[in-house]
Design goal:
Helix content is about 20%, strand content about 35%. The protein contains four helices and twelve strands. Strands 1, 2, 3, 4, 5, 6, 7, 8, 9, 10, 11 and 12 form a twelve-stranded mixed beta sheet that branches.
């Protein structure tokens, strides 16, 4: 691992910067903030300084000074977020949180959700927005929760068999296709679990303020 990289690690994508307390509180004890190219401008407007910038550097406002680590990658074969994730994997980082990965451009929001499918086996990765924490897994996984938490499930592939525990609308070896069939469920307690035969996105809503 790069000696300058301290844990925990946050990656800021070039979407809508969060305003909800849950993602913002992560900055209180963050070890390293990584920006994907243009998101550096957003942090500059907020008087926040990242430790690392990764991308082709074509969107950076020269009015903002930066004295950290620059990783220049001009490849057009992958997005700046993919470049950042590849870099943290290469440097042996095991867990990251993604912020700013939704909003502004609908196509990039969808693309970033698909990116979770591509990287969940390489990293312990969470995407946190103003509305939810989003993770991806295959097999069985348990989640900390609270009664009434909104839970939505989106499988990657057709024919995914899904079972759940401790949700209001229980799924018992249900064959689930990519669709809106498994959105807006609710947690019944402080934990719930999801078993899926193929990769699945799990959206967990934030508590109401």
């Amino acid at each position: 691992m790069q000696t300058s990289i301290k844990l925990p690690v946050i990656i800021i994508a070039n979407g809508a910067f969060p305003t909800h307390p849950i993602p913002l509180e992560l900055f209180e004890d963050v070890g390293t903030v990584i920006c994907t190219d243009g998101s550096f401008n957003t942090l500059g407007k907020l008087d926040l300084t990242p430790h690392v910038i990764i991308g082709d550097m074509d969107s950076i406002d020269p009015n903002y000074e930066f004295h950290g680590l620059e990783i220049h990658d001009s490849s057009q074969e992958n997005t700046d977020l993919e470049k950042a994730l590849d870099w943290v994997v290469k440097n042996g980082i095991e867990s990251v949180t993604l912020l700013g990965a939704t909003g502004l451009r609908e196509d990039m929001t969808v693309a970033n959700h698909y990116i979770l499918f591509d990287y969940f086996e390489k990293l312990n990765i969470e995407m946190i927005t103003d509305y939810a924490t989003i993770t991806c897994h295959k097999g069985q996984r348990s989640f900390d929760s609270f009664p009434g938490e909104t839970v939505s499930l989106f499988p990657q592939r057709f024919g995914t068999v899904v079972s759940t525990t401790a949700l209001k609308y229980s799924l018992n070896e249900m064959v689930l296709d990519p669709s809106a069939r498994a959105i807006s469920n609710q947690s019944l307690g402080v934990t719930f679990s999801v078993v899926a035969t193929e990769p699945i996105l799990v959206f967990r809503g934030h508590p109401e303020n």
